Amino acid sequence: MNQQVGSHRAGRYVRQPTGYRAFMPAPLPPDPQVALTGELPGLLSQADRALGRLDGSVLTLPNPDLFVFMYVRKEAVLSSQIEGTQSSLQDLLAAEADLFDEAMPRDVDEVVNYVRAMKHGLSRLADLPVSVRLIREIHAQLLDGVRGGRLQPGELRHSQNWIGPAGCTLATASYVPPPHEEVPQALADLERFLHGDDDLPPLVKIALAHVQFETIHPFLDGNGRVGRLLITFLLTECGVLHKPVLYLSHFFRRHRQAYYEHLQAVRDSGDWEAWLGFFLRGVVEVAGEAAETARRIQLLREQHRTAITDRLGRGAGNGHRVLERLFDRPILTVADVRDLTGTTYPAANNLVARLVELGVLVEMTGYARNRRFRYEAYVRLFTDEVPAEGAA
């Protein structure tokens, strides 16, 4: 493909009155259309199969919704880390449990907001399709009260933005998105593409849409995180996944430089096919890891249910009740256990002590009072490197 064709396939650079060049994205689908040749048909087939196995793995879990929230949290942490946050999954869980200390990164609120934005978007999908309206709602949730919160949460930008190293200008930026007055039409075109009738496989459509959103860069801050949330919403909306359990940001973070280079190669040379190969390889890899995590959750649950039944005697019923709660909220207090089981505080304290003996709970504060207990083995399933399903 010659440079002239390639450079106009995704859009073109247009010099602005003040001298800098901004990129004007062409509406999707690309012209010429994406060539599903070479390795791409095989990768697409692998990705479809991997997502099917992941969906099946999660749906076979008892009460899948209990476990989904941890997958959501992992995606929130990884996507936020791509943008430079320092908070870990452990920090996020501690913040949710109101367990703050001076060592906790100050940016943990940004990750908390990401989780809130994801949950808001998923609940809205029941009555609102993926659209500009939904994207703006998500953005407002994402930046509410945090770094970037002064940069018009939920509002499309009214000025030019740009991407590049610290201190760069419009003239030296790595990439300059379209001027703000072009953004509403570009987003309207993207929304039309998302819901238009065509023969593109869903994963191809989602991959194209992610790049287009990042290329439009419609907000002053938070574009990367909203664009990755968009992947999750589209996977769920089109029925590729019944539950939002694909933490694709794990792959993007692991290959961060390649991720950004592929996005830019689409703009510069129209190389949609290379991006699509990268995206599909990520889906295959992360879907395998997430399915293996589901398998390990099932084994862990069976192991601890058996231990509780065998060792807690008359307290086994309440022990099982606490165990199920831990899969959704892996940090709790004795007071939480008291409220959950409807027992006295001493009885709840005794139950917690027994669960510590069984290795289900680990005390994490070192305090004599205001103690917090974590379901350590479960949290580790989401913080340790997990090989893809079937890998050694």
TrEMBL record:
GO terms for molecular function: AMPylase activity; ATP binding; magnesium ion binding; protein homodimerization activity. Its EC number is 2.7.7.108. ATP binds at E83, H217, D221, G222, N223, G224, R225, V226, G227, R228, Y259, Y260. The keyword Transport does not apply. It catalyses: L-threonyl-[protein] + ATP = 3-O-(5'-adenylyl)-L-threonyl-[protein] + diphosphate; L-tyrosyl-[protein] + ATP = O-(5'-adenylyl)-L-tyrosyl-[protein] + diphosphate. It holds the Pfam family Fic_N. SUPFAM superfamilies: Fic-like (SSF140931), Winged helix' DNA-binding domain (SSF46785). InterPro entries: Fic/DOC_N, Fido, Fido-like_dom_sf, Fido_containing, SoFic-like, WH_DNA-bd_sf. Signal peptide: none annotated. Residues 130-281 form the Fido domain. The keyword Nucleotidyltransferase applies. Keywords: ATP-binding, Nucleotide-binding, Nucleotidyltransferase, Transferase. The active site is at H217. It is an enzyme of class 2 (transferase). Adenylyltransferase that mediates the addition of adenosine 5'-monophosphate (AMP) to specific residues of target proteins. PANTHER family: FIDO DOMAIN-CONTAINING PROTEIN (PTHR13504:SF38), FIDO DOMAIN-CONTAINING PROTEIN DDB_G0283145 (PTHR13504). Homodimer. This is Protein adenylyltransferase.
